Amino acid sequence: MGKVSLLLNFLISHAAKQESMENFDRNGASGSGFKMPLHYPKYTKDDYEKMEEWRLDLLLSDYGLIAFHDTSTLHEKRAIAIETFLWPNAY
After folding, report:
1. What predicted TM-score, i.e. pTM, was given to this entire model?
2. Which of 23, 26, 31, 66 is 20 to 30 A from 46 (CA-CA)?
3. Could you confirm whether the keyword Cell membrane appears in this record (predicted)?
């Protein structure tokens, strides 16, 4: 009886883990769209102000901020990146 309950507990635990993994999409984002890359961007305000639009798009999408870069102007994208990734005293 002990082996059966151990096996049953293992299967239930495995099924719960499998279900939680299926709630993530293929990019590792949950249903909210938020993703956390391994590294925090280390750009300065000057870097963001000179950054090309395609690079800003990539950076914003890497952090799940796709909604901001789809319809925004280049100036707005730079402002979003500066406000999101820099400490207030850095800009």
Report:
1. 0.56
2. 66
3. no
